[in-house]
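Side project, low priority. Logging it here so it doesn't get lost.
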Amino acid sequence: MKKNKQFGLNTITDLKVFLLFLLDNIRYPIDRDTILSIIEENTGDISLDYEQCLDELASSEHLLFDEVEGGKYYMISDKGRAVAAELYDNLDPGFRERSLRSASKHVSLSKSGASIKAYIEETDTARYRVTLEAYDRYGDIMKTSLTVNSYAEAEQIKKNFEAKPDGVYRGVLFSATGRIEYLS
C-alpha cells in the first residue's frame, strides 16, 4: 500500500471507511472489479486488504453483496451508510476529492433506482420555469429550476430530462463543480 500513508489510509478501518465512502457516492450495486479499479486509480495499489475489507463489510452487513453470473456486486446498506457517515471526515479531504472524481464516472440516476420528476410552471412575468427533480428513498439527489422565455423551450428541457436524466444530472454536476469527469 505504497500511497496509503500519503492519503491517510493507514488502517483496515480507514480502508473500510474509504470503501463505504465510494459506494455511498455511487449509490447502486457495482461489481468488484470496478471497485478495485477505482481503488487502484486512487491509491496506486491493490492488495488483499481490500478484498478482506469487502468481505468483512459484507459479513457485518455494512455492505450488501450478491453474486450474479460469477461476478461479485456490492452496495452500501442502510447500516453501512449510517455508521460511515460519521467517519467520512476522517479521510484526507484531498484524497476524498480525488476519489470522487474517479468514482464520478460511475454515478447514474437510472442505476441507483432514483425517481425523477419534471414540470413546467408559468411565472408572473409570462416566462416558463422548468423544475427538474431526482430523488431516492434517502431524499433529494437533485432539484433545479430553469426559467426560459418560451413554452416550447421549457417543454424541450422537460422532455430531454425525462429521456436522459443521467446526462442532465451529470451536466448539472459538471456545471456546479467544474469537474470534467462528470461528463465522461
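Brief comment: Strands lie at 30-31, 63-68, 71-76, 115-122, 128-136, 139-148.
Revisit when time allows.
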